[in-house]
Design brief:
single chain, alpha/beta, Rossmann fold, GMP Synthetase, Chain A, domain 3, eight-stranded mixed β-sheet, binds xanthosine-5'-monophosphate, ATP binding, GMP synthase [glutamine-hydrolyzing], GMP biosynthesis
Length: about 500
């Protein structure tokens, strides 16, 4: 595997994904974690960072000691850190260099840039510049504005050290993937054996080992991660996996039955429990978004525990946790460990004395989908849009009632169905409709109406952290607006949300 030392760059996860795309396994480790060498590690990549290497509190590691044991690739800050520690000079440059640049390759025969075209486009994002290289180092490439865009330690008996001032991991570095491949395969000698097929076999074996003849309980949500995790567990231990899928009354139209049917098709042992009314009771009079979230979360745990109490001899809890949920992030404000907890079903593991089974803990979302395809999970199930845990409850602004849920389900169904029919669904990251607590006047035939307004939302995004509103065709919007107003009694006006995130959010609550 490859170790990626994180110095807090916004692009660190992209490096990891690029490495994984080359079918090489890697892990992101915060720079301050003590390093334990083991023979499975074939190389180290030093990430970028928002810091300058000359700042007093800049994050540092001893690059030389890493390089004594392993091949090293420095990226941006990582390159500057290597240059500085080996005796080069790094200074603030007059202007921040940000954006596209063209590589001028100086060394045709270096293994790292082998096969890269002259004038290859790369992406720069840095404030400091390497003014002079250490002795025994040589330049591999320059650009119009900087003399050192790529360099290496001159060959000696030790391990190679390469460094890039630009970011090979971002999309705009058009041949970046090839450079990363060169580092992984030709410099570090990695074998490209990190494939969905290999992962499935290893994961199933690992689950068999861990669970033995025990039993696993798991809450399924209908989402991609829990479906893929449950399928892996089920392939390992069969019906000793006990899945529970709760109808909380705020799922999409017909979703409960459709998802249960899919689980059945996959062969999962899942019990569907309809607790709609309990959830509507808990949501009564609640208008504050966070209170709604809390009410749903708390009741969900109660329901899950109730169901679990019918089962005996359960010692494991399965979860669909994925890698971005557990990566310790390095923050500009000093080391910190932010770990999202929304996947954890409250404090259930401790409360019920259960050990966790998290087969997807080291996978990125795109890898989860690839594993899902390998497991032959139906395509529609794997490529559905993300859907929040509190469901339609946070898309009904104000108080949630069964009547409003029905209204929103019908409208949303028309919208999402049409996105699919018009082949727009897969290019959109997430789409949904929001029922606004605003009534307005309309006219239908000779009749005056006074009904709800529905907002349509569709965004493009990579990870949901930032998002742009999707530029849906006007004709499509016109068609949807008509369909909804003509078919859903209670809605007489449809609007389209044209806010990006930030400053807006994807959900309205
Ligand atoms: P926002 O609205 O923060 O949403 O831009 C980003 C992503 O997170 C989802 N989301 C949630 N998911 N529980 C969840 O499981 C929640 O309370 C929640 N709130 C937002 C949202 O759908 C989007 O994909």
């Amino acid at each position: 595997k490859i170790l990626i030392l994180d110095f807090g760059s916004q692009y660190t996860q992209l490096i990891a994904r690029a490495v994984r795309e080359a079918n090489v396994y890697c892990e992101i480790v915060p720079y301050y974690k003590p390093f334990v060498f083991d023979s499975s590690i074939k190389g180290v990549i030093l990430s970028g960072s928002p810091f300058s290497v000359n700042e007093e509190n800049a994050p540092v590691v001893d690059v030389r000691s890493f390089n004594e044991q392993l091949p090293v690739l420095g990226v941006c800050y990582g390159a500057q850190l290597a240059a500085k520690q080996f005796g080069g000079r790094v200074e603030k440059s007059n202007k921040r260099e940000y954006g596209r640049a063209q590589l001028q390759i100086q060394q045709q025969h270096d293994v790292l840039l082998e096969g890269i075209s002259s004038h290859s486009q790369v992406w720069m994002s840095h404030g400091d510049t390497i003014l002079s290289l250490p002795e025994d180092f040589e330049i591999l490439a320059t650009t119009d504005s900087i003399p050192v865009a790529a360099f290496r330690k001159k060959a000696d008996d030790g391990h190679p050290l390469h460094a890039l001032q630009f970011h090979p991991e971002v999309y705009h570095s058009t041949e970046g993937k090839k450079i990363i491949y060169n580092f992984l395969v030709n410099v570090c000698g990695c074998t490209q054996d990190w494939t969905p097929n290999a992962f499935v076999h290893e994961a199933i074996e690992a689950i068999k080992q861990q669970v033995g003849d025990g039993q696993v309980i798991m809450a399924l949500s209908g989402g991609v991660d829990s479906t893929v995790a449950a399928t892996l567990i089920s392939r390992a231990i069969g019906d000793r996996l006990h899945g529970i899928f709760v109808d909380n009354g705020v799922l999409r139209k017909n979703e409960f039955q459709q998802v249960l049917d899919t689980y059945k098709e996959i062969g999962l042992n899942v019990r569907g429990v309809d607790r709609k009314q309990l959830f509507y009771d808990a949501l009564k009079d609640k208008v504050d978004p966070e209170e709604k979230r809390k009410a749903i979360g708390k009741l969900f745990i109660d329901v899950f525990q109730q169901e679990a109490s019918d089962l005996t001899n359960i010692s494991f809890l399965g979860q669909g946790t994925i890698y971005p949920d557990v990566i310790e992030s390095v923050s500009v404000h000093g080391p910190s460990a932010t770990i999202k907890s929304h996947h954890n079903v409250g404090g259930l593991p401790e409360k019920m004395h259960l050990k966790l089974i998290e087969p997807l803990k080291y996978l990125f979302k795109d890898e989860v989908r690839k594993v899902g395809l390998e497991l032959e999970i139906p395509h529609d199930q794997l490529f559905r849009h993300p859907f929040p845990g509190p469901g339609l409850a946070i898309r009904i602004l104000g108080e949630v009632t069964a009547e409003k849920v029905k209204l929103l389900q019908d409208a949303d169904d028309i919208y999402v169905r049409a996105l699919k029919e018009n082949k727009l669904y897969s290019s959109i990251w997430q789409a949904g409709s929001i029922l606004l607590p605003i009534k307005s006047v309309g006219v239908m035939g000779d009749e005056r109406t006074y009904e709800h307004t529905l907002a349509l939302r569709a965004v493009t995004s990579v990870d949901g952290m930032t998002a742009d509103w999707a530029h849906l065709p006007y004709d499509f919007l016109a068609h949807i607006s008509n369909e909804i107003i003509n078919n859903v009694r209670g809605i007489n006006r449809v609007v389209y949300d044209i806010s990006s995130k930030p400053p807006a959010t994807i959900e309205w609550e």
